[in-house]
Amino acid sequence: MSSSGPDDAPDRDDGDETDPNPEDSWQGRADRALGRLVDASAVERILISLAALALSVVVGALVVLASGWVATCDSPFFAASGVGSFCYDPVAVYRVMLGGALFPSYNFALTLKETTLLLFTGLAVAVSFRAGMFNIGTQGQLVLGALGTALAVVWVAPVVPAGAVGGLILITVGLLAGAVVGGIWGAIPGALKAYADANEVITTIMLNFVASGIAFTLVSEVFKDPNSQTVQTRAVPEFARFQPVFFGESVFSFSAYALVGALALAGAIYWMLNGTSFGYDLRTSGVQPEAAEYGGVDAERTMVSSMALSGAIGGLGGAVYVLMVASRWRTGIPSLGFDGITVSILAGNNPLGVIPAALLFGALKTGSLSIEFQLAVPKQLVGVLRGLIILFVAMPEFFRMVGARFRFGEEQPSVATDGGGGTGGDSVEGTTDGPVGGQTDALDGETTDAAGDDRGGDDR
Amino acid sequence: MSYAGPSRKRRWLGGAAALVALVLVAVELFFPESPVSEIVRIVDANYVRAVLRLAVPIAFAALGGIFAEKSGVINIGLEGLLIISAFTSVAVAATIGGGSPTQLELWLGFWAAVLASVLFSLLFAVVCIEFKADQIIAGLAVWLIALGLAPFASKVIWGQVNSPPVATLNNFDLLVAEVNPPVVMMLVAVPAAWYALNRTAFGRWIEASGENPKALDTVGVDVRKVRYSGVLLSGFFSGLGGAGLALGRVGQFIGGGATMVNGRGWIGITALLFGNYNPLGAFGASFLFASLDALQIRLQQLGYSIPSELIGIIPYVTVVVVLAFVGHTRIPDAAGEHYESGEE
């Protein structure tokens, strides 16, 4: 009886009883190799994300085919007796989706606008996940942050001069209000986790429902725009909005200032995580809570502050939504928070990886409008793709098995021995950003898995 | 096994609830004209029936969650399974019934939905058990896929995210009262689940698979199979819950926003935590959450000028408060961990 325990997480290796005679059990050795494999190098993680994307595209195509078989239409793209008719052509769907995200130019502006918002929510989720906290509540933090922004700006607007200076003041006030409200709302589940041991997955989801209920009630009962039939606040003044650049003024207007700000925020968070002691504490708590505490990290404080920071970033997203998109708080805020989860997971919770992931999802969202408009394929298809991507990214083992069978064969484990994580990480570091110490890569690699494992192994 | 902390807190909560009930009864006796006693008078047989109907999806999700998690697989995708089955039940019934399904066609839709939910949970099980996916993230994916797929399919079939209304399952007469079929199923399933978990060999396997899979392996029981059956049972029960919600009470699929399921799967997870993985306790918690839901519906009917959205968040606030109090629930030791058999 070999004792190959579940050593799929590197931090569990020491807890395992050693095999009485390790020589005879190749499986035991394979398991240990696997444990190191899970400590995935950054290159491997990018490969897995790409493979997950590709697989989602394939499965999504099957969904399109199947739904086209169910749907009825005048001119199916393919029909055969005995099989039935297929209304939607998957290739055309993807072509239109991609094309619709880029052309015409106002669609591209729409894509960049979505990207900007998704950058905020993706970063918000990434920060919490890196700290080992599953913040599913970005949506609620964004909704309340947006309300805070709208109310603060409308309230301050009468006392500032109209024009560029007043606009700058109002935008600052709005961003601050959004961040503060979102941060407070995010700190609640953090505190509940830290001091009452309440599972943050559940509390953050519940608080999403609570947030939208509170915001709706506040607006409909207290802050309703008297000149409007629908539940919405007064509009923020024109000069307090992010001014559109490049694509001219239209309903699709998108502000390069907001995008640049979001990109700067991504850089700042990357630096915060990798270059500051707070970031180091945060990451070690995410990977190895016990070790972090032993090393002098105040676990409770880290939980609360990382969730507050995550909520504040989500709140900033809400502020930008108000100041760039909606001009006011109104019902039916899109599910940017949930998309942020996908963006972050696809990015391996890396703040710089969030940038391409947000761009991809921004494009998907804009493209989904085109597929509905041009091909009558429901735009909710993007929601399906979102779930599929998360599902496939969650199962790296699947891709390793496929990879081992078709490409790498035997030598794969040797790549993963101790040096592997470092070298793999360095090459990516070269492509993405400036030089960063090797020790961070080891942490980068294992965040998702270790955080998930912590969730399971720990009690709640 | 004694866990002084949580159980004392539970007793506290129970005591507080009893006190509130006592105060309400006193108000009813001494101040029959006050608005509070008007609310107290809501509680009658009809109210209890309404609560039981509202409890159906929550309690079934909780039962399913218990089996999955006790066997060692944390399934937070229950909400998604409820959505899938709610949609499938209406879609199948409406498709074979041509828009106005008969009772037989409704029942076909019902069981097709259970099957769909089981198949979906099989997918989740394969992903988690064979491919060692992170269970939390995979569960999240199940939820998000369902959240996208059901409205997508609704639009393909009906051209909008909501289905047209279909009939609901007929109540049947049982002794003195008319009863709702999904409610009866729930009232049978809860003690049955308790019995299966506490008095049968299968229950002991489930328990061992979550607590100490190696020991189970040692005595020659296939941990993988036990975990598969745990997850598939979670799909089965969630299927009953989702179809019971759609065909037993609402008679429609509503796909807008958070869909008609609207967080009930998540409340079910909280119910199982609150009930400490005991089917009877989880049912009690489901009943509590459902009664809050029923209360807010009644208050709206009575015309209280409290905004419905504000009352609507009461169950969710309760969940957060309950979690804050009960917080530390002991989950099975090996839940969330992968197990690889030593032999083969």
Descriptive overview:
The complex is a heterodimer of chains A (460) and B (344). Chain A is mainly α and 460 residues long. Helices cover 69% and strands 1% of the residues of chain A. Chain A contains 18 helices and two strands. Chain A has helices at residues 26-38, 42-70, 90-102, 105-130, 138-156, 164-196, 200-221, 256-275, 277-287, 289-294, 299-326, 336-346, 354-375, 381-393, 396-408, 412-415, 419-432, 438-457; strands at residues 78-80, 84-86. Chain A has a two-stranded antiparallel ribbon with strand order 1-2. In chain A, α4 packs antiparallel against α11 (299-326), α4 crosses α13 (354-375) and α17 packs across α18 (438-457). The longest helix of chain A has 33 residues, at 164-196. Chain A is globular and about 70 Å long. Chain B is mainly α. Helix content of chain B is 72%, strand content 2%. Chain B has a two-stranded antiparallel sheet with strand order 1-2. In chain B, a hairpin with a 2-residue loop joins β1 (172-174) and β2. In chain B, α3 runs antiparallel to α10 (223-250), α4 (78-97) packs parallel to α6 and α7 runs antiparallel to α10 (223-250). The model of chain B is unreliable at 1-6 (pLDDT under 50). Chains A and B meet through α2, α7, α12, α14 and α15 of A and α6, α11, α13 and α14 of B.
